[in-house]
Amino acid sequence: MQQSKNVVGAKIRGFRESKNISVEEIAQRSGLSVEQINSIENDVNLPSLGPLIKIARALGVRLGTFMDDNDALGPVVCRAADREANTSISFSNGATDARKHMEYHPLAQQKAGRHMEPFVIDINPEQNPEFQLSEHEGEEFIFVMSGEVEIIYGKDKYALHEGDSIFYDSIVKHHVHGAPGKSAKILAVVYIPF
Questions:
Q1: Residues 42-92: pLDDT tens digits?
Q2: pTM of the model
Q3: What would be the CATH architecture of the domain defined by 5-66?
Q4: For the domain 80-191, what is the CATH superfamily, name and number?
Q5: pLDDT tens for each residue of 15-32
Q6: Which end of the chain is more exposed for a tag (fewer CB within 10 A), N or C?
């Protein structure tokens, strides 16, 4: 079953409408613009995890709720073959031309009540990226599986290579991307307090 941004936008709209909350109210609660909320709900653009986390908080749900199919109470096993064939979500890096620079493969989408969101992320190369830094509550852990990654964290920039990792507080403005012109594959675990 292929899940894409279309499903995420529809789920957000569905949760918002089921709670009788207007787009304007979600924008006010989340600190995002009405245009950005409409763009996400109408499947035009998924800029990054940051805005999705803010929307989830404004709706009183976990981030994973937007990606879940069914909740399992026991352990969730994600086979490599299934990960590649099933769910993936592409984000556009906040760029105005909606380039897709990251493809997220959730690893625990059926796990009920989780506070961590594990992903394998394919990062596509970009020559002239426009970075929009993200900030949200929680923590992130990134392990570089292959390629080269750059992480802007506050005023610092970190270069990571295969086998390197980083753990940071997500409340500090940050951005993860491939080194200039390089692709990469990372394991990322995002913790969001609820």
A1: 877 666 677 888 888 888 887 777 766 555 556 767 677 765 555 556 555
A2: 0.66
A3: Orthogonal Bundle (1.10)
A4: Jelly Rolls (2.60.120.10)
A5: 888 888 999 999 999 888
A6: N
